[in-house]
Amino acid sequence: MGARARRGWRKVINGVNFSAFIVVLFVGLPLYWLIISSFKTPSALGDSPPQYWPNPWSGANYSQAFNQYDFGSYFINSVIVTLCATALVLIFGTMAGYALGRLPMRGKFTLMVALLIISLFPEIAVIAPLYTLLKDLGWLNSYQGLIIPYTAFNLPFAIWILRNYMLGIPQEMEETARVDGAGPLRTVWSIIIPMALPGLFTAGIFCFTACWTEFLMALTFNINLKTIPVGVATFGTALEVPYGTIFAASVVAVVPIGVLVFIFRKNIISGLTSGAVKG
Amino acid sequence: MTAMSTPIERAPASRGLAGRPDVNRRRMARLGWGFSAPALIIVIAVTIFPIVYSVVLSLSNVTVTGNGITLGGATGSNYVQVVQNSTWQYALGFTIIYTIITVIVELVLGTLIALVLQRLAAGRGAMMALLLIPWSMITVINAELWQYIYEGTYGVAGALFGLHDILGNSLQAIIGLMIADIWKTTPFVAIIVLAGLVMLPGDIYEAAEVDGSSGWSTFWRITVPLLRPTLAIAVLFRVLQAFGLFDLPFVMTNGGPGKATTSLAILGYKAIFQNLDFGTGAAVATTTALLVLIGCLVSLRAFKVQVGREGM
User: B126-147 in b/e burial notation, b at 16+ Cβ within 10 A?
Assistant: First the structure.
């Protein structure tokens, strides 16, 4: 291995690093544009040719997003909806994942496949009846009107991931707890959850990202209780799109998810591969 | 191994309490359903029930009144209307072509990026973190960003490449949309493929090298076949997302210019919430869902992947 790697090295070192540099440009340049544009003065955003470096740097877009527009409350709405939905998904997903992974239920294979198929359905397929249902319940423009659909849409994937983690926990651990007289809930809490923690992180970060970025349902159900994506999409009018405000809001919206994704990147990668593939 | 574990497994039965393991098993099964109940109830209430209702809507004469909607008699006319509608035919063709092109480009680029990252000596973690940013980005923000890049008078695409009417020209708008999509999701494909590459057994490659296999043929004859389940997952995720395409064209082009970027989801949304035509909207939504299902099954078949039964 060592010799091969070293030999392969010399051959590719320049090519690989050059290609990696191209990748960084491909991914990074639009991000660079988003960030520097948010720091231009509102009038400089309309310059042609554009400024490739803000001159002068300005925080005007940020104060505009929070003062003139109501970005602060969109942000809070997003946080509330996302955190509640993620918590519910993790609680119900852990319980169901434990049952489907470790308890002798009949028909659980059918159930897992049914969940997989449900998770494949596009949102557009359920949006109209769900809208009618939420309207009848008086839940349009409410937190629960988004939290419950988000929970439902993210549960199937979370159950799959958690079930796969649960399958890997050795049976003896559970037996020992049972012999010690621990009830089922107690066993799940003190044995299963600590062992399945990486799976919980994986399921959690996926759910968080999906809720944080969801647009169609938030637009349809909660136009008067906007989350960040709806807020960003509706800042402008037909005549004028305030790009500065939009980009300032966008940078603020990317920060929390960016931090979480950075912290949990290993869980994301494992969720995208082993968790999803093993099935 | 088996000999070791058998006594432990047998232990409850050998206690001589007839039927006890059975009772225990039934109790555990009941516990299982109890534990699954909250999740299943929510999923059924929010997905299965609306899907069924959507099918009912699509098969009914729906009238929208001030108080909501009323269902008339059963009819297949919504589907006939939808299928014969030229906008639907266009949206179907657009969505399929868009899905095929973006998924192929993302798969090729994503695999190339993964191969580069795999060979990278240092900074792989930082690269992964960078790649995860577009993946986790709100699609609406992605749309606004590229709309600004493509903007006619002050967009950077105009300044750099002299393209001043990207979103006003049908073909350019479609390509522009695809570029925005490819930028956001190629990193996601790259990460999946890289994780798959890392898990491949190293000794096969040594054997291939001993046999004098060239890099190119090693890639096609060893890497690609071994990577097939991983690629299948990536394709499945992407086909699903691409077929439900909504956020990006809704914000960037609103389906235009004309109907150039009207995807099935955009069409369904407009039928339901702008024209208040619930029957047609439901028919569009139901056909889309059906096509997604078929698309997934076909792509899984193409990659010969089975959902494993192991451990069940």
Answer: ebbebbbbbbbbbbbbbbbbbb
> What's the pLDDT tens digit per position in A4-42?
666 555 555 567 888 888 999 999 999 999 999 999 888
Q: Which of A23, A132, A257 sits opposite B68 (nearest CB)?
A: A132
Asked, for residue A90, whether it belongs to a domain, the answer is: yes
Are A132 and B139 within 8 A, CB to CB? no
In this structure, are A69 and A19 located in the same domain?
Answer: no
Residues of B in contact with A246 (CB under 8 A): 141, 144
- Domain extent, residue A248, equals 64-278
Query: B64 to chain A nearest CA, in Å?
Result: 11
Contact B134, B142 (CB under 8 A): yes
Residue A108 and residue A35 share a domain = no
Q: ipTM of the predicted structure?
A: 0.85
pTM: 0.85
Same domain, A52 and A86: no
Rounded to a whole number of angstroms, the distance from the CA of A118 to the nearest CA of chain B is 7
Domains of chain B: 2-58 (no CATH), 82-302 (1.10.3720.10)
Residues A98 and A136 in one domain: yes
The verdict on a CB contact (< 8 Å) between A232 and B286 is no
Cis peptide before A49 (omega within 30 of 0): yes
Peptide bond before residue A149 is cis, with ω within 30 degrees of 0:
no
**Chain B residues 78-97 with a CB less than 8 Å from chain A:** none
Q: Which helix (H) or strand (E) holds B70?
A: strand B68-74
Given A23, A104, A212, which is nearest B29 (Cβ)?
A: A104
Counted domains in chain A: 2
Residues A129 and A216 in one domain: yes
Amino acid residing at B289: A
